[in-house]
Write a structure and sequence with these properties.
By secondary structure, this protein is an alpha/beta fold. It is built from 24 helices and 15 strands. Helix 3 (about 70-75) packs across helix 6, helix 13 runs parallel beside helix 15 and helix 14 (about 355-360) packs across helix 15.
Length: about 575
């Protein structure tokens, strides 16, 4: 069976079928609303206790950052918009607590599930997880406890909630496979943190496997084999041993630089969303942060974060990275990413609307609050500021004028900041990539956001399954734009180009980007070791020859086929 490889590795073990609990909702009308509200309150109190216990286990097993998802679950549980509405429905419609909880949960899940932004979509899974727990508590329904598994297994389930994943006994759970889900889900992210092989989106694995079947899960290819023949089993045991040897080799590279065989050095850094993420960057040998997404400070709050709150968050990251560079991206929100405390008009096309730096120009006070906080924090480490969604040089100049206003205010207040702080822009709009030579005169660096650059250049929504096949980072148009941006920065001494989109952590792209002259690769922390291994396996000249071949090819498929062949010739393994 073929699904989505969500977490790499190979697992071979017995199947453990996680059965769906049948929930029967009483839809009858009730007379005593007071008793139903009391049932709801007890269920909420129990859920809070359960989630806190799961959070503590997640901190021990996964680390502080991955455990933060349960802070979000607690916030949902305490949100009057959610639990308050359940109580209101009980009172107004005179229905049971479980019926009201089910109706309100479904309503919230539908609203969040329809949003285009991936971050907001994931909130639907969190609400569903919390809602299911609440309903089970109301009804007193017990579920299988994955922490009590006492033998080595591969979990087979329709879906796994973050709560399920966090409670797994990772000494016994060797992998998992589900009917639904994708690479960006919390479950997938947690599986990668646990380093458990996982395949999602198999559609009917639960109806194809039985308890006790021998299962092979190949997280690299997305393949699942049920009850393999002896020859197949032996080949996967060998493959598993090779993978574990490869992982050990990556670990040994942690302290070594990302340096080619002929001495060319590039920077490998991490993308982060919160101060807690820096632990993963340092653990994987990252040399700094190439993208600090500050919008999470705004989205995880019920009110506009103050200058002081932002200052403390930025300062924590800068001090935690001990002098390594941190590129702080200013607020990238608007359109499809809503803030409850910031009233934004509905837009026909939010991706082309009032968002990111455009919104900051309209909400100037909001922008200045953030800039002042970043400037103040820059006194405690090596901070760089990056403006997102830049389409022309006028926007760069306008942003710099506002930044200079903040500098003058801090000077007048005698507040310290880094006077030499570097300023850059995110190149994610084709017009900025085409005119990079003009913009380069105004900034210290570029960081290419390939996710949006691909969508805008190729006019394709990668979340739309009807056209997602057109989303091709290896498309010649994308490679030529990337090359143009890098060349523009290199015309000026001391200026550099980084990349913070998914392409930076793509093993197949590493040699092309190295050969094009990319100075900094910023990616998910877990991708850093493999990209480092690839870079250390070649000379710069070899990478340049591969990049030149890529620029001369006509299609994305041709580029990927060529790179795959070149990696084989160079005896470079990728996963």
């Amino acid at each position: 069976m073929k699904g989505i490889g969500a977490s790499p590795g190979i697992a071979i073990s017995k199947a453990f079928i996680l059965k769906d609990v049948v929930i029967e909702i009483n839809t009858a009308k009730i007379e005593n609303v007071h008793d139903e509200c009391a049932r709801l309150k007890d269920a909420i109190d129990n859920a809070r206790l359960q989630i806190n216990n799961i959070k503590q286990k997640a901190i021990e097993e996964l680390g502080e950052e991955e455990a933060k998802i349960f802070d979000a679950h607690l916030m949902i549980l305490d949100d009057p918009e959610y639990t308050g509405q359940i109580e209101q429905v009980i009172n107004s419609e005179k229905i049971t607590a479980e019926n009201a909880a089910n109706q309100v949960t479904e309503q919230f899940v539908m609203i969040f599930g329809m949003m285009e932004d991936e971050y907001m979509k994931e909130r639907a899974a969190d609400i569903k997880d919390v809602g299911s727990r609440l309903i089970r508590n109301i009804l007193g329904v017990q579920t299988q406890n994955l922490s009590e598994i006492s033998e080595d297994v591969i979990i087979i389930a329709k879906d796994l909630t973050p709560s399920d994943t966090a409670q797994m006994n990772k000494q016994r759970v060797k992998g998992f496979a589900t009917d639904i889900g994708g690479r960006t889900s919390h479950t997938a992210i947690m599986a990668r943190s646990l380093e458990i092989p996982a395949i999602l989106g198999l559609k009917n694995i639960t109806s194809s496997a039985n308890d006790g079947d021998i299962i092979i899960v190949d997280g690299m290819t997305g393949e699942v084999i049920i009850n393999p023949e002896e020859e197949v089993l032996k080949s996967y045991q060998d493959k598993k041993a090779e993978y574990e040897k490869f992982r050990k080799e990556l670990e040994e590279l942690k302290e070594l630089p990302a340096e080619t065989k002929d001495g060319h050095v590039v920077e490998l850094v991490g993308n982060i969303g919160t101060p807690k993420d820096i632990e993963g960057v340092t653990r994987n040998g990252g040399q700094g942060v190439g993208l600090y997404r500050t919008e999470f400070l705004y989205m995880d709050s019920d009110e506009m974060p103050s200058e002081e709150k932002q200052f403390k968050a930025y300062k924590e990251v800068l001090e935690g990275m001990k002098g390594m560079p941190i590129i702080i991206r200013t607020l990238d929100i608007g359109g499809d990413k809503k803030l409850p405390y910031l009233q934004l008009e509905e837009e026909m096309n939010p991706f082309l609307g009032l968002r990111a730096v455009r919104l900051c120009f309209v909400e100037k006070d909001l922008f200045k609050t953030q800039l002042r906080a970043i400037l103040r924090a820059s006194a405690f480490g090596k901070a760089l500021i990056m403006f997102p969604m830049i389409s022309n040089v006028d926007e760069v100049r306008q942003a710099k004028v506002i930044l200079d206003e903040c500098r003058k205010e801090l000077d007048a207040e005698n507040i310290a900041y880094d006077k030499d702080l570097k300023v850059g822009v995110m190149v994610e709009i084709p017009s900025a990539a085409v005119c990079a030579d003009i913009i380069a005169k105004e900034v210290d660096f570029f960081s290419i956001g390939t996710n949006d650059l691909c969508q805008y250049t190729l006019a394709v929504d990668r979340m739309n399954e009807n056209v997602s096949y057109l989303y091709q980072p290896f498309n010649p148009a994308i490679l030529r734009l990337v090359h143009n941006v890098i060349k523009a920065s290199h015309q000026h001494e001391g200026k550099f180009t980084g990349m913070c989109g998914e392409m930076a952590g793509e093993p197949l792209a590493a040699l092309i980007l190295l050969g094009l002259g990319l100075d900094e690769f910023s990616m998910s922390a877990s991708s850093i070791p493999q990209i480092k291994k690839i870079i250390r396996s070649v000379t710069l000249k070899e990478a340049q020859e591969i990049a030149q071949k890529a620029l001369e090819l006509a299609t994305a498929d041709e580029v990927m086929a060529m790179v795959t062949e070149e990696l084989k010739k160079l005896n470079i393994t990728i996963i």
